[in-house]
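Quarterly update from the structural biology core.
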Amino acid sequence: MNYNHPYRRFTAVALTAAATITFASACSDDAEEPAGNAAAAAQGGPEQKTLDGAKNAAQTVFDRFSGGDFAGAWEMYTTAGKQSISKDDYVKLNQACSRKGLAIQLTSARMEGTDKAIVIAKQLVAAQSYTMVYEGDAWKLEPAKEGLALYKLGADKAIAAQKKAGTCANA
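Predicted structure, tokenized:
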């Protein structure tokens, strides 16, 4: 596996993605817990400003990306991420160069202050960290500097650059 592949750049280039997140919990007789973050978001309310909220949002963006819903993944970017590449160019770039269907599983996470979380996701045997930022009452994926630089090239030049580097999965 080429670790410079677009998934590897998801944080860097926002090219990593998806899997299911499994929360381990002890057996108990507790009543059913509220749906939390997903329910709040579905109702148009703010997401939980908690580690679990950040993990849920990260998993959602990864699921969207690996499922080929690149427009949906782009929607979960920070403002800076969205400003670096249009939704159409992001979709075009990822349709051309990203592998779909490779699950990514969150393995750990930690808060860094009150509005930033670092999540660790594993795909096959490779692990990578991602930054989630609480922005506008929701957790958003913050693309890494390398990803922002690639995005600023625009879709056509970014695709050409990835093909030249051998990191375009569909080339």
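The beta strands are 105-111, 116-123, 126-135, 138-142.
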